[in-house]
Amino acid sequence: MARTKKEKKSSKDNELENAHSQQENVVENDEQVEAENEEENVESIEVEDTKTALSPEEIFAQERDEFKDKYIRLAAEFDNYRRRTLKEKSDLIKSGGELIFVNMLPVIDDFDRAMEAAASAEDVNAVKEGIALISNKFKNFLNQNGVQEIDAKEQDFDTDKHEAITKIPAPSDDLKGKVVDVIEKGYEMHEKVIRFAKVVVGE
């Protein structure tokens, strides 16, 4: 059934009203966005005005307080780091010393067995050989830990490694200014002297 002229006119009016309503909504949305932007701009301007309104003394006081806070935080962090480092170093020293003594225990066990065997041994040479083996084992242990004996006898006297106990006339001209005898052996660890060799120097 065909629509009458009145119905067609009413339909067109509705379409026009809908279009007009959509345009009004778009305008309202645009106005709301512009209003929000204006509010943000006003707030930022107010903040800037507040900053610029501070006197140089007030600005200096604020910066001073900021630097003071940063300094306190940095000092606290450094103190915590220092304490942690000292504790780690202390633990490392303790554990390192423990490892050395643990490795020395087998040598001590060998000495105990040698002393028990020497008490009832009839062969002196066997006892000597046992002691020599223990001595070599202990020297190898020292070498593994970077400890070495300082070569002193018949060497040029060196104040960085030797400590002269006394001087005697040299048995021969080639021993003048050299070590004639070693009273106490010296040792160095990783090329650092940990005990000077006590020697007798020829002159």
Question: Which keywords apply here?
Answer:
203 residues, alpha+beta, Hemagglutinin Ectodomain, Chain B, Nucleotide Exchange Factor Grpe, Chain A, domain 2, 3-stranded antiparallel β-sheet, 3-stranded mixed β-sheet, 3 helices, 67% helix, 14% strand
Write the layout of secondary structure elements.
Layout: H1 5-53, H2 56-120, H3 124-144, E1 147-149, E2 162-168, E3 179-184, E4 187-189, E5 192-195, E6 197-202
Task: Report what the structure shows.
With 203 residues, this protein is α+β, with helices and mostly antiparallel strands. Among the domains are: 59-145, Alpha-Beta Complex (Hemagglutinin Ectodomain, Chain B), CATH 3.90.20; 149-203, Nucleotide Exchange Factor Grpe, Chain A, domain 2. It has helices at residues 5-53, 56-120, 124-144; strands at residues 147-149, 162-168, 179-184, 187-189, 192-195, 197-202. Strands 1-4-5 form a three-stranded antiparallel β-sheet. A three-stranded mixed β-sheet has the order 2-6-3, with no helix packed on it. Strand 4 (187-189) and strand 5 form a beta hairpin. Helix 2 packs antiparallel against helix 3 (124-144). The chain is elongated, with a radius of gyration of 47 Å. The protein starts with a helix and ends with a strand. The mean pLDDT is 79.
